[in-house]
Amino acid sequence: MSTNELTFLRRLPLIAALILVGGPVSQAGSYTLMPLGDLPGGALSSTPLALNDLGQVVGIGTAENGVEAFIWSRTDGMQGLGALHAAGTSAAYSINDRGQVTGWASSVNGIEAFLWDKNTGMTGLGDLPGGSFESRGRGINEAGWITGFGTSDSGVESFLWDPLGGMRNLGDLPGGKVDGRPKAINNAMWIAGRSSSTSGPTFEAFIWTPQAGVQALGDLDGGAFRSTAEAINDRGQVVGRGDTATGFEAFLWDPSSGMVSLGDLPDGQLRSSAQGVNDLGQVVGAAYDATGSQAFLWDAAGGMQRLVDMVSDGSADGWLLQEGRDINNRGEIVGIGKNPSGENEGFILLPVHDQLCDCENGCDRLGEANR
Fold first, then answer.
1. b/e for 156-173, b at 16 or more Cβ within 10 A?
2. Where are the alpha helices (DSSP H) in the chain?
3. What digits encode the pLDDT tens for the residues 310-322?
4. pTM across the whole model
5. Reduced to 3 DSSP states, what percent helix, strand and coil does the chain have, rounded to the nearest 5?
C-alpha cells in the first residue's frame, strides 16, 4: 500500500467524526476578518489561493522585484518564497498540512513547477518531454504528490509528480485536442480539473483516478456544455462552475449523485463559480449580484450566503469581499477583496471559536494525528 493511501486511511476516522458532529457554525456573525497584508517592498496587492488545516495560507503577492509566491501564518505573517532564479517571479497555488507548497516559478529553463518546504526551500520539478519548457504545479496532497500541467510535443498535458517517480503524463479526455489542466488532488490521489472535449465547443470538467484514468464530469442542464473543476475533497466531491441557459453556476459533483447546481444568492444574477470545498462539503466561491462579485459560503443546510453578512463584529466594515478561494476543515476561509482604502488585499475569515485556540501551537484538528 502506498504512502498516500495509508495517509488517507488514517484520516478516515477523523473525517467521519467531523461529518457526524457537523461543521463550523455558519450563521451570520460567526466570523471575524483578518487582513493578510502584503510582502515588503511592493504596492499592497495580495491574492490568497489556498490554505491548509493549520491555517497557513499561500498565494501571490507583490514584492519589490515583482510578483512573488507567499506563505502566511498568524504567527509569522507573510513571507516570500522566492523563485528558481534571481529576480524571477513565482506563484503558490496549494499547501498541505506538512507545510509543503506547490506552484510555478521562473527558472533558467522557463516557467517551472516547484515544490517548496521550509527545510529545503524551492525545488524545480522539471517538465514533460517535448514542446516548450513550461510546467505549473496546481495541487499537492499530504503525501507530497503534485498535480499540474505542462507543455509537451502534443499540447498542454496533465501531469502527476511524486518524489520517487518524478513527472508523468496523465492522458486526456478522448476525442478533443490535448489540453488538460488539473487544479487539485486529494489524499486518495484523485485529481480534478478541466480538459478539451468533443462534447462541446471548449472544455469539460474531469476527474482522474488511478483505477479509471480520466473521466468526464459532464455539465449542468441547459448550458453550452462547458464546465471546469476547481477543487476536490477527501470524500471525492468536486466543485467548479458550469454553463447554464442563463449564464454560469457553481456546482458540486458527487460520485453518487453527479453534478448539481448550488443555486444563487438572494437577488443574484445567476452567475457563480465555486473555488474551494472542505471535507464537510462546505463550498466557497464568488457570485454576482447588482453590486458586483460577492464572496459566498454554501452548505447543504443554509444554501448560498454572502460572506460579508456572516461578519458582524465590525472587522469587515468598509471591505468588499469579492471571492472566496478556499476553506479548510475548521471552517477558516481565505478570499480576495478590496480593503477600506480600495486596495486589492487578501483576507482570512476566522470562526469565532477559532479565537479561543491557536492551532499552530497545539490545537487538535484534522491532520494532527499524521504529524
1. bbbbbbbeeeebebbebb
2. 3-21
3. 998 999 999 999 9
4. 0.87
5. 10, 50, 40
